Amino acid sequence: MKANDEIQSGCFESVDICPLCDSEDSETLFANFDRLYYLPGEFITLRCADCGLIRISPRPTRSEMPNYYPDTYSAYRNPATIHTLAKYHAPGIKSFVRQSILGELGYFESRRTLVNRLVGKILKPWFFERATFGYEHRFPQWTENGHALEIGCGNGFFLTYLKELGWRVQGVDLSDHAAAAARALGIDLFVGDILEAPLAAVSFDFVRMSHVLEHTFDPLAAMKRVRQFIKPSGQVYIEVPNAAGAGAIISGKYWFGWDAPRHLYMFTPETLSRLLVEAGFRIDRIETKPWDSFEWALNWESEEHSGSRIKDRPRIGKDQESRVRTLRREADNLYRQDPTKGDLIRCWASDSGD
Question: Could you tell me if 230 and 204 are in contact, meaning their C-beta atoms sit under 8 angstroms apart?
Fold first, then answer.
């Protein structure tokens, strides 16, 4: 990691053309900076005047960008506390219930009994989230001899679940630190950009990209590359922050989801759908979900006004608790009125065949 004074102005580049529609027309939303680590640079948030895609300009160059991802970055933390599924294979009621519910997604088909099927159907509404390790319908359906890829796999914990359940898995990540953690879990990993990854064409049944696309230097090129190595029957799952969500509307430039300069592009359901269609995908399902980050927003607003950082963020005082509750109610009301106003976009897509 470079010291702050070692990141020079020559390490930034302008982004004058929208990569989605090639327009040079844009409107300025606000200026932002690295609120998470306080590394150098001012980054202007722009919205394309033609298609609405949001980008930052200037941004760090490709060679400089790794310096904005310190080893303490959340996705790169050592997965020492992340377990494998070994304990779930041990006989017991929890294992029986989990296997019964996962059977509803096609897992353990060869060993499912009538009792398993009945238990799975009955208990799925109550225990589906726990049975899928918190992923619910984001957890993939079982595919015989399935091959799964996670782009931006971080320390590899999601892939360990799939691997233990019988998938062949591979990962891609930019971080050597993340790679060491993932390989410690037995994950086959390529370190580098997805555009350079030596992956076989038409070879994956499931591709996961959770909070990755907003970090790419060219999201359209990235998705065109993904289309090259996903099978015609395969599916890609994408999750990104929603720049049109309640959090962004209410918190403005203090919204956690901007995360400049790591988030180079920001999406709405409309711009993400357009990007995927342009890349040759069909949208199978798209939804948004709330995510509460108002404590972060208040911390960053306070830091900007006071000129000093708050220790152990996010943390609010008693005097701010009422304001946080008010903001949460406002966000809940927006989401109830319009289900596209959740803070996270979740999208499932497949090859359009065109």
Answer: yes
Q: What share of the chain is helix, strand, coil (3-state, %, to 5)?
A: 40, 20, 35
192 torsion bin: left (phi>0), alpha (psi -120 to 50), beta (else): left
Nearest partner of 191 among 158, 240, 154, 216, judged by Cα: 154
Give residue 84's pLDDT. 47
Give dist(CA 175, CA 232) in Å, integer: 30
CA 10 to chain centre: 29
Confirm if 266 and 57 have CB atoms less than 8 A apart: no
Residue 175: predicted pLDDT: 84
The length of the chain in residues reads: 354
Crossing angle of helices 93-102 and 114-131, in 10° steps, is 90
DSSP class of residue 263?
A: -
Residue type, 170: Q
DSSP-assigned letter for residue 156: -
The whole-angstrom separation of Cα 268 and Cα 288 is 10
Distance CA 156, CA 78 (A): 10
CA distance 324 to 298: 8
- Name residues whose C-beta falls within 8 Å of residue 284's C-beta, 6 or more positions apart in sequence: 235, 348, 349, 350
Q: Are 253 and 64 in contact (CB under 8 A)?
A: no
d(CA 152, CA 135): 17
- Low-confidence residues of the chain: pLDDT under 70: 1-10, 74-91
User: How confident is the model over 215-235, as pLDDT tens digits?
Assistant: 999 999 999 999 999 999 999
CA distance 207 to 98: 23
Asked if residues 185 and 160 have their Cβ atoms less than 8 Å apart, the reply is yes
Give the per-residue pLDDT at 73. Answer: 75
| DSSP 8-state class, residue 234 | E
Query: Can you read off the two tokens belonging to residue 25?
Result: 């027309």
Half-sphere exposure of 307 (CA within 13 A, CB side): 0
Q: What φ, ψ does residue 286 adopt, rounded to 5°?
A: -145, 140
d(CA 202, CA 223): 14
Q: Which one, of 74, 68, 22, 87, lies nearest residue 48 by Cα?
A: 22
